[in-house]
Design a protein that fits this description.
Its cofactor is Zn(2+); Mg(2+). By secondary structure, this protein is of the alpha/beta class. It has five helices and six strands. The chain binds magnesium ion.
């Protein structure tokens, strides 16, 4: 079986914005992200992005925009990410989908496809719904937040950025 770190995208791999990130020029990758991913990869973790992209349902941008941003992210991080799952749904615009976090179908699909051992896997996220999706499938959770000390109690660990979170995983 394989171990994996699931990665929320906006606010974890790239800086979030008050509106949606869908232009490559708005993809700002903080210092330390590439190094953190490299440390996890060297330790044998699969790196799989699981991201809500409801802007697709809202008609604000397209699947092609999501993939352009993902390709840019891969260019910046040495192609270390193994796969990306995104949920294009929003219950106000499309039918409700179990892929949208806090539901966990994106993670469940990856767990089945990549034969992932949840007991040795993690999720990094900057929202309560990321932690909830992780709990649903039984991975450990790290809540990343560099601004607000308002950290959800449901997270197993807390970190200020992806690099710090990666080092917490490697300490285990
Ligand atoms: Mg986020």
């Amino acid at each position: 079986m394989n171990k994996c770190v699931f990665l929320d995208r906006d606010g974890v791999l790239n800086e979030d914005r008050s509106d949606y990130v869908y232009r490559v020029e708005d993809m700002v990758i903080p210092a330390g992200v590439a190094e953190g991913l490299r440390l996890l990869k060297e330790a044998g973790y699969l790196l799989i992005v699981v991201t809500n992209q409801a802007g697709i349902a809202k008609g604000l941008y397209t699947r092609d925009d999501v993939m352009r941003c993902h390709n840019y992210l891969q260019d910046c991080c040495g192609n270390l990410i193994d796969d990306i799952y995104y949920s294009p749904h929003h219950p106000d615009y499309t039918s409700r989908s179990l892929t949208r976090k806090p539901d966990s179908l994106m993670l469940e699909k990856a767990i089945a496809k990549y034969n992932i051992d949840v007991a040795h896997s993690w999720i990094f996220g900057d929202a309560l719904r990321d932690m909830q999706a992780g709990k649903r499938v039984g991975v450990r959770t790290i809540y990343i937040n560099h601004r607000i000390p308002n950290q959800p109690a449901v997270a197993d660990k807390h970190a200020t950025d992806l690099l710090e979170a990666s080092k917490l995983v490697l300490e285990q």
